[in-house]
Structure formats: structure tokens, C-alpha cells
Specification:
- The protein is α/β, with parallel strands linked by helices.
- The protein is built from twelve helices and 22 strands.
- A hairpin with a 2-residue loop joins strand 5 and strand 6.
Length: 412
Amino acid sequence: MRRLAFGAVVVATVAGLFLWQSNRAPDIASAEANVATLPLRTFALNLDPATMADTESRKVATAIYTGLIAVDQDGAVLPRIASHWQRRDARTWAFTVADGIRFTNGKPVTAQAIVASLCEAMQPSHLQAWSMASIEHADGPNGKVVCTGLQAPDARTVVVRESQPTPWLFDALAGIGGWVVDVAEPPGPYGTRAGTGPYVVANVRADDAVVLRGRADGAIKPGLAELRFRYLPDPGAAAQLFNNGKLDLLEIDSPQLAALVLTNGKPVQSNAILVKHRLDRVRMVAFNFAALSRKGIAPSSVHRFMDAYSAAISRPNMQARFGIVEPMFTAFPPVADAPRAKTLTGPFRTVPGATPNLTLLVENDPFSDMVGAVLPNQVGTVAIKYQAIDKGLLISRLLKKDYDMAVLRLEA
């Protein structure tokens, strides 16, 4: 088996991972070797897209659900339930449903069922309703939403119309809110809904394991015959199983965990590889322009400031410090021109008689500690202070606008 170690942080999802493998995998009925074992750090399992809020449940869910389309990490739009689509006008898209797709309960997936699912995701009670808000709708009785922007003129056509054209409609349709489920049936155990993904839940052993079985009539073909998710709350135990070949994926999100499975930047086991993306959480950066201005920093300088920081946290810099290959995503996109941090001159206005001092607030977690260890103490004429604090305190300071800059992790 090919084993994967993730250099963690912001979605190759589990389903995406095994699409990556699908071009290399044999027929799904061929052998026991065509099984992957993956870790779960928590077992608060909730597989209902309407109420799912944790990333561990999403690892399982991304293998059993999908939507009309998918958007990969490079922004390319890929067919899923829809075989193709076309833009009718600036606000309207028409999606053609592919033949032969069935829900995991055996029912055929029709345009009418898709519209019903998307309309349920637009209701205020759905956790992902915010992501679908650009689709045209009206207020209905009892706090419900009337989905005026969703139509199914025939069994194979879904029309989606926005109130105003937005650049994120396809991302919304590819996300949890766009996952198509059979809303005619109530959720089953652990909130499981009849979905359209490549796998179906075969067995759940509480606080132990979740087993998914590949199926042939989903929106995409499974890359493996079976996925097994093992509950492994102890990262050290997971690392040991990974090194012994009993676990096929490991998320590396601390120097200590990296040390257990890496030597001089190379995997200990020759059949393990590093994958550079993990998209189950996103880190966003916030700038307090009022505070920056009071300290003599013009808002127009912020972009150069971000460039300087992304250069300081470059992958080669991280690799030289920790020996991790393609380690992690940061709050800023990596830039190839690493020397820019050294050559940055004069992007900040100085306050007479004072040296600007900025504080970067981050969450108190291993990844933030790792990033903080390689941040420069000064950029241009500005001294930088790195401060890791509890997430609750970080949110409080954001709300009070008591910060210069802050990096916040968003659970997806």
C-alpha cells in the first residue's frame, strides 16, 4: 500500500485523496490490499451535512457525499453529479445531470431531488445556509426560505439563478451546502444521509472505527474497495502504526510528530510519501487598519507587509529549520522570491521619535508555534512581536478591535 503523511494545514479531502489514487488502483473487487486505513482524532461522529461542524466527521463525509460539481485546489471545476454545465446569463447556470447516478439507498438522482437537497441547504436551520445565500430566494412562512433561484424544468436539468452574480457560486455548490442528499428520507445512525459519493457506510463501531465500502453507481468511481477510519486520539500511537505499515495516512502538525516519522526531511519508510496539501482548515489574516494607521503604517503598505511575511515563512525556510519537505500552509501564500523580506525598504511610515512595534496574534497551537519560530523580529523599520493566545481570547480581542494583526484558523 502507498502510505501518505500529510504536512498539515488549509480541501485535498479524503474523497479527493482517493480520487488521486483511483487512476492507480486495481479493480475494487480485486484484493484485500485495495483497502486504506486512515486516522480519526475524535469520535464525535456526525454525518449529517445540515449539522456537521467538526473536521474529523468531514473526513468521513467527503467520501460518502458529493455535489453537482467539485472544485480542486487549483480552482478547476470538475464534473460530479453534473456531466456538464452552461451559463445562460450573468446570473443563471444550467447543469445537466449525468446518467446512471443513484443515492446510496438505491434511488435514482433526479434534477428534482437535487433541487430539493439544495433548497434544504438554503434553510436557516442548515449550518451551511450562509454559503448558499447568493442563490435567489424569498422569505417564506414560519421562517422558511422559498428557493426561487432553483428550478428543475426536466429530470436531467438543474437551473441555478443568483440574486447577483458572484465568483464563489461554484465553490458553494462544491462545498457541504452543495452536497446532494435524499431529503425525502430522515437521517440514519450518526446522522447518515443517502448521498451520491463513491462510498457508503458499511459499519460503525463506536469509539473504534468507521468502515466505508466502495460502490459503482455514485457520482464518481471509488479508488479503493474499502476505507477504514480508526479512532486514534494519541498522535504518538498513530505515528507508530504509520511507521509499522498499519496506517496509510498521518497528519503532521507539530515538530514532535514530524520527528517520529521523518529523518532529515525524508520519510523513514520508503513506501511513505509526503502530500503537501490538507484543506480541512483555513487560516485567515486580519489587519486592524485603524491601529496600523495610529502606529504610522499606511493601509497601502499592507500588501508589501504580507509579501515580506510570506517570504519569511517560505517552505525552504521551514525545511531548513525543521527538515520537513513541503511542510505546511501558512496564513499567507508562499512566494518564490524569498529574498524580498531582506530587501524590503521603506514601505512603512515612521512616527517621529518612535519605532513602530506590531503584534501578530495567533492561536496557541503546534502549527502556530512552528511558524512563530521562523518569523523575523523586524521587517523594514518595524519591530514584530509574535504572541500566541487562546482562541477564545483571540476572538475577544478581534471583536474589541484590540489587535494589530491576527491569524485565525477557521474550521471547515
